[in-house]
Amino acid sequence: MLEKLENTRELEVKTVPNLTAVIDIGSNSIRLVVFDGPSRVPLPKFNEKVLCGLGKNLAYSQVLSESAMNKSMMVLKRYAALVNHMGVDRVLVAATAAIREADNGAEFVADVEQECDLNVQVLSGKQEARFAGLGVLSGMPFADGLVGDLGGGSLELVKVGDHKIGDTATLPLGALRLSQMNKNDNELSDHLDGEFSDIEWLDNLKGKNFYVVGGAWRALARYHITKTHHSLKIIHNYKLSLQEIQSLILDVLSKSDEELSRAALVSKSRISTLRTAALIMDRLFRIIQPKGIIFSANGLREGMIYSELKKPVRIRDPLLETCRDMAAREGRFPEHGEEIYNWLKPILIDVGEKGQRLGLAAAILSDIAWSMNSDYRAAQAFRRIFRAPFSGIGHKGRAIVALAVYARYRGNIKGHAAEDGLALISEFEKTSALSLGLALRLSHTLSGGTRGILPKTQLIVSDDKIELTIPEELSVLLGVHAKKRLDALANCQGKIGVIRIIADQ
Questions:
Q1: Among 10, 97, 295, 370, which has the minimal tally of Cβ within 10 Å of its Cβ?
Q2: CA–CA dist 39, 34 (Å, integer)
Q3: What's the pLDDT tens digit per position in 371-414?
Q4: Is the C-alpha dihedral spanning 346, 348, 349, 355 positive or negative?
Q5: Alpha-carbon distance 335 to 321, whole Å?
Q6: Of the candidates 263, 278, 303, which is a domain's last residue?
Q7: Do 73 and 28 share a structural domain?
Q8: Is the overall model pTM greater than 0.85, yes or no?
Q9: Using CA atoms, how far apart are residues 90 and 87, in angstroms rounded to an integer?
Q10: Within a domain: residue 6?
């Protein structure tokens, strides 16, 4: 009987439904990502990349090299075997510039389909650009400006705004391709300027944000994060000003590949294309003069999945969707972040719409550390949120949400665990995060983390006080902690706390 039960359990463990794999056959690398979707925010469950250099010869030849194809085939056979053993429901395979342009690209695709049993879609330049733009929108739905996706063989430029894709362009300006052209910086600059001058609509995007996609450009962000000792080593939604990126580009271009390698600020696999990537960005930015530069971890692969979602799913907020999924998995009781948020919303009048959205995210996540030892709940909640694979939130936003939930458990934002978050935000934002956290702390004290109690009470905020009204029938829930926690919240906002018990009607 025991053996039968164990066999049944083994079958259940091996069943992993609703997985989607994307294999991206790029000009420099081949990557497999397995997502637990499709869904609004599919979570990568497996992610592996191998640099194969299929497009290494594009600068002087229209033929894929034998060695690159052999290495790529070996990688693709491995990926095909992995997705088969994982029980993946759907496998999407996309090939980009190198295969699209090579004379023997179609032959290589046919071999892959035969030997790996994969259906390969060779993307046109327009398709590649569109998927890159959709990938950015999947993680930054309010993106407005220009997306640039720098691959090994090509550069895709995509206008985004109002949740839509606009003009697109594909240029033969991949970092790997240009690094093999044996041109000096001045010659490459002239070449780049000539290519960019043909795109008339670029002038219309001056002063807009620029959204960065592609491994060669993401390496610049990693270089900057390491060099500046930025406290959050996450590329997605890492933001720089034009002045900061210009200083970074100047720093990279002033160094040789050998000097960059010795600096140990970027992976060795990216050293050979880092200077070329910086020069491409420099010449493009001389034209568009972007307001801000925002790095995106999402790109073509995420765009392919996002393109297949129905519109009602697409328009969902990626941050709040991820928060709800996390709360459903890790909370004690059925998730009721909206109920908590609606109750504490009166204290958020000074933080604007963006701050209120972060308040809702914090309310949804406010019970995720309940299962931890009580001495470690605050620190664990902070780390879990601060480093989570969120979309739709910047580094400052992460810090505010993480600090708020930290304060919900600890009652303050002091301590070593919170230092990385505090380093990213202003004094006003620190006070806002603490105030939000203290309101969350009070909400859980009153309700015990369950639904239905908070809507029967009310927070009323005036110039000099925060008043908690509660019906007499529920006054027993005040216990010994509610007044103390109301006073802490009120004191944070420079007010006094008052409890008013309403007689039963």
A1: 10
A2: 13
A3: 999 999 999 999 999 999 898 999 999 999 999 999 999 999 99
A4: negative
A5: 12
A6: 303
A7: yes
A8: yes
A9: 9
A10: no
